[in-house]
Amino acid sequence: MKNLRNILGTLAMVTVLSTACVDLFEPAIQNNRDLESSFNEPRFAQGLIINGYARIPRNGWSFNDMATDDAVANNENNAFFNMASGQWASDNNPVMQWTNSKAAIQYLNLMIETADSVTFTVNNSMLDRMFADRIKGEALGLRALFMFHLLQAHGGMADGQMLGVQIFTESKNLNSQFNLPRNTFEECMQQLYSDVETALELLPLDFENIASEDDVPLKYRALGANRNDYNRVFGEDARQLLSGRIARAIRAQAALMAASPAFSQGNSTTWEDAARYAGELLQLNGGISGIAPTGLTWYTNVNEINNLGGGINQQEILWRASLGGPSSNLEAAHFPPTQFGNGLLNPTQNLVDAFPTVDGYPITHPNSSYDPANPYANRDPRFNHYIIRNGNTAGPNNQVINTTADGGTNDGINRVEVSTRTGYYMRKLLRQDVNLNPVSVSGQLHVMPRIRYTELYLIYAEAANEAWGPLGTGGFGFSAYDVIKALRQRAGIGLNNGDAYLESIRNDQNAMREMIRNERRLELCFEGFRFWDLRRWNLNLTEPARGMRIQNNSFQVINVQNRVFGEHMKYGPVPLSELLKYSALRQNTGW
């Protein structure tokens, strides 16, 4: 390591390790620096881990929902439009994580290896020890996160064996061996679990100030640390960095994936493991009582968002990206045309049909109050929270949106290039108080969650139902049924009839499984989950995307876009460029 050349000062210019080794390890001569030169420059050393944070995939919305049965793109040049039309390939992969995550892991490994040698303070070895522990804990938690994204995007079956990716726990240089086979999926999961466990030993549950000297951990008190020392390193100034609570959430996300049908072969992670990891975290959040009452509309709770500061989160959000300043980019991409937007993501009739009626019954159930002649009446309140349909209002002036074919506005289905193709526009995630009128454009603050508590409750519900049945608690004091009932009550479902449909299936594991999957579909729509969920569940990837054409006050369901996915595409490919370089790598079957 002592002969390793350091990275360029401008980290964003560095390309991936596996595709540009020379650029990474032999930068331009005027930028050459030995790694040891950073030991007395903590800002430079910390740049390694900052690079890891900058590469977190959910630092921006991908909207891969547009390659599923939940949504389509109205732009034929959109990568997900083309992906869903049969153009997904190992050399054309919009959801690839190989390059980004492998590069992040290289930087994190460098940080782990050098943290103990960096001087973070002036002549205070005790504080240096504490800073080194924190940063190593962050780096290990982030390394687990990137392993999760690698497995999700590239793990799969090859020659009858479930494979993951190559495990790198040490930084690489030009003399390192790169032509290595992929580790098994199981080995990758065990490495992820190990990284989380070590991170938990180094990190506090949350980065918050402590009030008493007695709250200083014994290992730091033994070094002479007091309350002020601890708060300087592990206090509230470090909020939004990766904490012990966040590391636990990453473990629960990964365990859910590993226990799922598509990944469970040859894998020791069980549904009970996933339920336990999620349950332990939810107990820390107060169990069922910790479900945020305003979590349904976290993206548009103006008072909550405008009062965020000092790294504070809304109750619904465990971890988020930096708040940033007021913006209008999201609305410009997705607002309807009459609101000066490009209407990019169009929710499908498939998704609309997944919303039950307000009494809780699926619209196909004989006891449902659904009326095909008046399909938007008496529906799950989340429908109107998340989707703009004909007759809704939108934008800062609450303008009525007319999506009919004969309505005479550009909001109508297939009127112009930026019109909806399905008869629907996305409302979720958008601030309706953003004004895109070119005469007076005004932006608003937006929250970008990395992990929401609703996701974690749904992880527990899914895993607990599989492990212990709908009513089993596994010792946590709440069941899959309890979680789903609470989430549906929050949404306003079944309030007048005691959610009779949920009560009718409370002892039926198979029916509860379908409800949990549907609740996950609704609660997490447009947030990048459906694409991966369909695959880990081994469900149909080729259901055509449908829409609703309204003309002369009549409703006609139409086919909008066929989905072209092969059976093997439940797993993503290893990049072709890597296979051409490294003979030891095996491609997932079918690619």
TrEMBL record:
Domain SusD-like N-terminal, residue spans: 62-209
Annotated protein name in UniProt: Starch-binding associating with outer membrane
Gene Ontology CC entries for this record: cell outer membrane
Location relative to the cell: Cell outer membrane
Metal-binding as UniProt keyword: no
PROSITE patterns linked to this entry: PROKAR_LIPOPROTEIN (PS51257)
Taxonomy, superkingdom: Bacteria
RagB/SusD domain: residues covered: 336-591
Protein family according to the UniProt entry: Belongs to the SusD family.
Keyword Membrane among record annotations: yes
Main localization (coarse): membrane
Entry keyword set: Cell outer membrane, Membrane, Signal
InterPro entries: SusD-like_N (IPR033985), SusD_RagB_dom (IPR012944), TPR-like_helical_dom_sf (IPR011990)
